[in-house]
């Protein structure tokens, strides 16, 4: 190689080789999850060469340092050119052909490529709390290092399809029953693995999964799997590829199937869908980082929680804490409201128990942690108090004034308001640093998104405590600033305006909703409006107009509400609901829209599904760009997390900002201008600079 060729720096040494007598131990040190990063394959291959050349070595144990076995390929390396990507397939091939027994010693989570590597070993042993799985489908890819060919050779077609299409891990005990694990090690894993390795050191022939046959193939199994993913993975690419590859494993020799698997993996990895899912994977984790709040910021301990209001939201919020063993005192204004609220909580738990997801004993344990009360005095000891009453500023202010008098010093005072000014609420207390917004999404015990609303004076400690708490209760916390609707609901306004505009100018409501179904949304704006209740938007628009002295709004949807059609709750809204919740286009509404257009002198025009979809998706993104500029959201990726976890935006599109970046922001601006929609200044600037929202985030976060 000529001297001036730039030497690619040697990868770091991430694998330590050591001896336990006649067993060579390869320990991977690549915190935090021992991802299969550059340096890991090199270390493992070197270790195997050492074992091969040393006759005193009778067997090899591979084990993860720190808290887990290899948790998968390093997702960050997916964008590397193929020749620079860590050679996972080559490492596993070397294991598969190795002439001495190799034992994977698993603790923590052996996932994806990590588990594929374990399947390439002769044997696998694990601690009892270890988990193994192939979650690649959740990243829009497929097990690309032999998993689609080896897994069915161990567990059969049906179970292999189940595991790879769900992407969910199985516990060590179940893995042992399935034949994926040879032994559960009690006590020290390394010692257990070494002892196991010694016991099998002379066993020949060495077991090789790649040499086994696949059991359980039938046309019906594959047909059922293909039918199933039409519902569970609507519009996605990789689930179908997984099914095809498992079917291939039943038809061709291992090496042929393995080769084709490698090709299909590259196809899936380079798809916009995988980029979207990988974007969300990292975005979810990035959202937990608060740019100007140091990781060392002290946290307050949350041992007990108070909830004010036992309505739908208050009850759901309380359940989040009961579920993780945190006692809750819930306060209402009347015994009847309290009884009703507790009844709903109990019924929710009992329904979960009926589905076998909770024991009756757990129901009682959780209900036992719930203390009903009619007095604020009972909140005096709470570390966190969450107000969840109806959206009226005067009522909320009165509550926070009372809390200021009753709550102990250091208690965090949170409002669950979905739109109101948290600064205004904080101002009625003498402790604005302890006041924050915790905006849960209904149903609060189910929806994973939690908008953590940072008021001007919210202290870093309170912010950091609430972010940690969101993870503890299984929520995805995203910090947002104070403005009407914060981030999620604020973006709904132009989204809904655009939907209404499409209908006003010629589209039918069902076409507008269908366009968002095509994007991957479970529900379009009109279905969502009918479900939430059209009267809520109607009332808040009027309230806002009254406050600001603007003229009363007039829109064709308002006419629907004025007919008493409030949505599902009145059996009719934009759609008719002849049987339960299934929306049926309504001739009456079609006529109402026609006459409204005539009244406004609007000439009807056609819209293609593509334009209908882009107008709506870009309306979301455009407002997101404004939100970013105002500093209401830390990152564009935070906005994506909000829409994926709170509003059903398809994760495989990566969220509204990522989706726009995928289209090319230059193209987006051109589309918006063609639609007569003013692009946000930041969007226009990024488009002119040929950048994406990810570039913006990296620039802003200095990454
Ligand atoms: N690659 C790169 N970084 C990863 C990573 C991975 N596989 N897994 C986690 N991280 C980072 C994560 O971004 C975070 O970084 C830190 O580690 C802690 O993660 C060929 C192609 C293992 C259950 O899909 O499910 O193998 O925020 O906060 O809650 O077939 O991480 O600290 O900077 O999630 O304790 C398959 C993905 C890959 C597993 C641990 N494997 N990871 O959860 O920690 S594709 C996966 C997880 C593959 C092959 C294919 C979880 C975890 P930061 P964390 P955790």
TrEMBL record:
Residues 304-481 form the 3-hydroxyacyl-CoA dehydrogenase NAD binding domain. The keyword NAD applies. Residues 485-577 form the 3-hydroxyacyl-CoA dehydrogenase C-terminal domain. Monomer. Its main location: other. It catalyses: a (3S)-3-hydroxyacyl-CoA + NAD(+) = a 3-oxoacyl-CoA + NADH + H(+). This is Short chain enoyl-CoA hydratase /3-hydroxyacyl-CoA dehydrogenase.
């Amino acid at each position: 190689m000529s001297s001036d060729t730039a030497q690619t720096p040697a990868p770091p040494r991430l694998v330590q080789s050591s001896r336990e007598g006649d067993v060579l131990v390869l320990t991977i040190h690549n915190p935090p999850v021992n991802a299969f990063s550059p340096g890991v394959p090199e270390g493992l291959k070197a270790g195997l060469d050492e074992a091969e050349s040393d006759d005193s070595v009778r067997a090899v144990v591979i084990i993860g340092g720190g808290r887990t076995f290899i948790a998968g390929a390093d997702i960050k390396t997916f964008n590397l050119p193929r020749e620079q990507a860590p050679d996972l397939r080559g490492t596993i091939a070397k294991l598969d052909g190795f002439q001495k027994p190799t034992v994977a010693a698993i603790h923590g989570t052996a996932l994806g490529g990590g588990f594929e590597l374990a399947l390439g070993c002769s044997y696998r042993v694990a601690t009892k709390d270890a988990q193994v799985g192939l979650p690649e489908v959740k990243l829009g890819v497929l097990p690309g290092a032999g998993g689609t060919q080896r897994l069915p050779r161990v567990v059969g077609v049906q179970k292999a399809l189940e595991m790879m299409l769900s992407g969910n891990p199985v516990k060590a005990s179940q893995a042992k029953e399935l034949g994926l694990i040879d032994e559960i090690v009690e006590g020290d894993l390394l010692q257990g693995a070494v002892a196991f390795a010694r016991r099998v050191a002379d066993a020949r022939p060495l077991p090789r999964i790649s040499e086994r046959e696949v059991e359980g193939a039938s046309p019906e199994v594959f047909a059922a799997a293909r039918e199933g993913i039409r519902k569970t993975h609507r519009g996605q690419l990789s689930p179908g590829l997984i099914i095809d590859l498992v079917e291939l494993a039943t038809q061709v020799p291992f090496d042929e199937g393995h080769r084709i698997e490698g090709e299909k993996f590259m196809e899936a990895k380079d798809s916009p869908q995988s980029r979207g899912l990988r974007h969300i994977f990292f975005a979810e984790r990035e959202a937990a980082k608060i740019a100007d709040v140091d990781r060392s910021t002290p946290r307050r301990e949350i041992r007990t929680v108070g909830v004010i209001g036992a309505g739908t939201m208050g009850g759901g919020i309380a359940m989040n804490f009961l579920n993780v063993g945190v006692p809750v005192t819930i306060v209402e204004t009347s015994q009847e409201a309290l009884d009703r609220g507790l009844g709903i909580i109990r019924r929710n738990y009992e329904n979960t128990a009926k589905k076998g997801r909770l024991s009756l004993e757990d129901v009682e344990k959780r209900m036992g942690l719930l203390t009903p009360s009619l007095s604020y005095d009972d909140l005096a000891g709470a570390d966190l108090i969450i107000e969840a009453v109806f959206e009226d500023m005067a009522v909320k202010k009165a509550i926070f004034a009372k809390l200021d008098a009753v709550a102990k010093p250091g208690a965090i005072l949170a409002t669950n308001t979905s739109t109101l000014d948290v600064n205004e609420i904080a101002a009625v207390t003498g402790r604005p640093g302890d006041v924050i917004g915790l905006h849960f999404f209904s149903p609060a015990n189910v929806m994973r998104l939690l908008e953590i609303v940072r008021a001007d004076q919210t202290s870093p400690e309170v912010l950091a405590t609430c972010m940690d708490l969101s993870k503890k209760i299984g929520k995805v916390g995203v910090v947002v600033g104070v403005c009407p609707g914060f981030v999620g609901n604020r973006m709904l306004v132009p989204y809904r305006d655009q939907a209404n505009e499409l209908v006003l100018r010629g589209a039918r409501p069902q076409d507008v909703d269908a366009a968002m179904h095509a994007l991957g949304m479970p529900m379009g704006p009109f279905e969502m409006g009918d479900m939430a209740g059209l009267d809520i938007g109607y009332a808040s628009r009027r309230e806002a107009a009254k406050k600001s002295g603007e003229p009363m709004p007039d829109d064709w949807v308002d006419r629907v509400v004025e007919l008493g059609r409030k949505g599902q709750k009145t059996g009719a809204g934009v759609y008719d609901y002849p049987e339960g919740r299934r929306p049926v286009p309504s001739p009456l509404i079609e006529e109402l829209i026609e006459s409204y257009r005539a009244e406004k002198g609007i000439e009807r025009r056609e819209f293609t599904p593509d334009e209908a979809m882009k107008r709506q998706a870009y309306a979301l993104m455009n407002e997101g760009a404004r939100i970013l500029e105002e500093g209401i959201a830390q990152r564009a990726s935070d906005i994506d997390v909000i829409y994926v976890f709170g509003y059903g935006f398809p994760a495989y599109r990566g969220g509204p900002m990522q989706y726009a970046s995928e289209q090319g922001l230059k193209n987006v601006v051109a589309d918006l201008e063609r639609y007569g929609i003013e692009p946000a200044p930041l969007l226009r600037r990024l488009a002119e600079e040929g950048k994406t929202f990810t570039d913006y985030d990296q620039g802003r976060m200095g990454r």
